[in-house]
Amino acid sequence: MTDATPLPLDEVLDMLLDEFETPSGEAIAAFSKQYPHYRADFLRFAAAWAEEEALLPSPPLSQESEERLDARAQSALQNALFARSQKNAGRTGEATKRNKSAGRADLAHLARSAGRSLHDVARETRIPLSFMSQLNAKHFIPDTIPGHIAGRLARSLKVGVDQIRAAWTGPPIMKRAMSYMAKDKPESGPQRDFVAAVRQSNLSDEDKDALLTEN
């Protein structure tokens, strides 16, 4: 099963960060093999990342720069507050906290724990990369995702179905790559109906049926 249209750059960059955490040389080389048409974009993104991380003295900020930094700070604060609330809610002992943390892990984290990449898992489960990326970012309403999708992922990653369902439960995740470089305050859109998204996609009818029916 393959997508009829290429993955957008922002989704590819997010998958790069999911798998490698930073746009390292290894990450750029690996993703350039799979997405050669984005190689120049990967290099620009890595350069922008390195520039932001350099912590060099900078001239007085313009209003636009201040707004960009404020947007990033607000995004980081929202994520930190959500993480803290989840952590506090699950603090019932060290062992229980570890179990709950595992249950909250996103699909990329579960894949890394299994020594896999999202690309590997997408191929094995016959889930298009565009939908795998959106599942990882919690972009779908959990109750609309068919049970057999959770089953495929659980078998591939050798975890329980409950861990898979927990991985896509919670508020949608902002696209990290684009929010990192955004000029305006990044915002995540509302979660979508999975079945409706499949039916409205550019996938072939055969691939849509393969996603929506258990086989």
TrEMBL record:
Residues 85-104 are annotated as: Disordered. This is Uncharacterized protein. It comes from Pelagerythrobacter aerophilus. The lineage of its organism: Bacteria, Pseudomonadati, Pseudomonadota, Alphaproteobacteria, Sphingomonadales.
